[in-house]
UniProtKB/TrEMBL annotation, chain A:
SUPFAM superfamilies, A to Z: HRDC-like (SSF47819)
Main location: nucleus
Similarity comment: family membership: Belongs to the eukaryotic RPC9 RNA polymerase subunit family.
Highest taxon of the lineage: Eukaryota
Subcellular locations according to the entry: Nucleus
Region feature (Disordered): 183-203
Source species of the chain: Brassica napus
Protein name per its UniProtKB record: DNA-directed RNA polymerase III subunit RPC9
From TrEMBL, chain B:
TM spans (from-to): 38-55
Domain of life from the UniProt record: Eukaryota
Name the record gives this protein: DNA-directed RNA polymerase subunit
GO CC annotation: RNA polymerase III complex
Length: 203, 211
């Protein structure tokens, strides 16, 4: 088959695909009949065909972007699935999926996302419409929570050309100040520090 | 930086998992297949990104047992949460290491974020790190003040590019572990770089040299 690759689900050379696609038993039984010719139809609105390398070379049909999530929403998801259960982390050996989830959880707890709620975010994005910001910029602001004009600068794209002047920027910052809770206080790590220092959360 | 991706795949559920409720069994198989893997298709330059966890199973149909096989196969439509930042996104990361080519930042769950030397604010200089093994340390010189880049504070960077290098067919013995997804970041703009640089900053630093 493919030889011993490490755990990276990537495609290999083109040569294997067609042979694999045609000869795979799953493709013959497949109701919708994914034939190799449809493989080239990658312009079809967001639906594309991928090579699934692990499960014996058949096609994975996908829609790459079914919605963007803010950091808070991911944190919420993790919480609702019990990622915050600290005791089990130390005692039980954890599987790979748990490992990644814990890392993501740890990362998100240090960002402003841990003090936000769904209402805050919906409220904020509604109010942002007044400033005519792009969706990506609103997402950035929610995730980063800029506290000054200089923090806001890398988020806004071409502000001068879009008529976002200093006053508008201040307006955005005031909105951030009013609606989004301040981020948690993360203690600065010393140099060469491997251990995570204690994080204090603002209630 | 996280997205939902909807995928459809044919999933084979091994018989020993059949005692579990179907949804749980399928989730287990999917987790093994997709978690922690980066899916990309360099042929068409499309990608999903780093798959984190299964969000939901939309539908599972089929359950046919193929001849010669003991396990049922389901056609499953499911949604996964993936880590895939967009170009231009500002992300808070931690410093990991640096060398003469630039910096390397980490998010804990993702460690292949590189800031090449040209995207570190100039003027700067690179010097051997006095308190650290064999690393180089980058220092930004601004208005006669020196600002060190190290791991004491969070570093905000902007995503410039995401690349998915193809799997190498051969690897040298001491080569770095292969990274299927590499993010190139920039910290040479207002508000980027270690957050300590901009704390208590007033309006006068608002030079807008955004591209």
């Amino acid at each position: 088959m493919r030889g011993a690759l490490p755990n990276w689900g990537l495609t290999k050379g083109k040569g294997n695909w067609f042979h694999a696609l045609v000869s795979s038993p799953a493709s013959r039984h497949d109701q919708k009949n994914y034939i190799p010719t449809s493989f080239f139809d990658h312009h079809q609105k967001n639906i594309t065909y991928l090579f699934s390398p692990i499960t014996s070379n058949k096609i994975v049909r996908m829609k790459a972007n079914a919605g963007t999530l803010t950091n808070f929403e991911v944190l919420d998801l993790l919480n609702s699935r019990g990622a915050s259960n600290d005791t089990t982390r130390v005692i039980a050996p954890i599987s790979t999926s748990e490992y990644t989830r814990l890392h993501v959880y740890d990362y998100l707890m240090e960002t402003p996302a841990c003090t936000q709620t769904q209402e805050i975010i919906t409220n904020f994005s509604d109010q942002c419409k007044y400033f005519k910001l792009a969706k990506a910029e609103i997402l950035n602001i929610i995730n980063i929570r800029p506290s000054s004009t200089v923090n806001l600068a890398p988020i806004l794209e071409e502000p001068s050309e879009r008529g976002i002047d200093k006053k508008a920027k201040e307006g955005i910052l005031k909105l951030v100040e009013a609606l989004l809770p301040p981020p948690p206080i993360v203690e600065a790590r010393g140099d060469n520090e491997e251990e995570e220092t204690e994080e204090g959360e603002q209630s | 930086m996280f997205c939902l991706s909807e995928l459809e795949d044919t999933v084979r559920v091994p018989p020993d998992l059949l005692k579990l409720p179907l949804e749980v069994a399928i989730k287990k198989v999917l987790q093994k297949l997709f978690l922690d893997k980066v899916f990309s298709l360099t042929f068409f330059l499309l990608s999903i990104g780093l798959c984190l966890f299964i969000y939901d199973i939309k539908s599972a149909e089929g359950g046919f047992v193929l001849p010669g096989d003991g396990a049922p196969t389901y056609k499953v439509v499911f949604i996964i949460v993936v880590f895939r930042p967009f170009v231009g996104e500002v992300i808070a990361a931690r410093f990991k290491e640096s060398d003469s080519n630039g910096l390397r930042l980490t998010l804990g769950f993702f460690e292949d974020i590189y800031v090449p030397a040209p995207l570190i604010p100039r003027p700067n200089r690179c010097e051997p790190d006095p308190c650290n093994r064999n690393q180089m340390r980058w220092v930004w010189i601004f208005e006669e003040q020196e600002y060190i880049i190290d791991d004491s504070y969070q570093i905000n960077f902007r995503v410039e590019n995401i690349s998915y290098p193809p799997v190498p067919t051969e690897r040298a013995e001491d080569a770095k572990l292969f990274a299927p997804m590499v993010i190139t970041g920039a910290i040479d703009d207002d508000g980027l770089g270690p957050v300590s640089w901009w704390e208590g900053c007033s309006e006068r630093n608002n030079e807008d040299d955004d591209t």
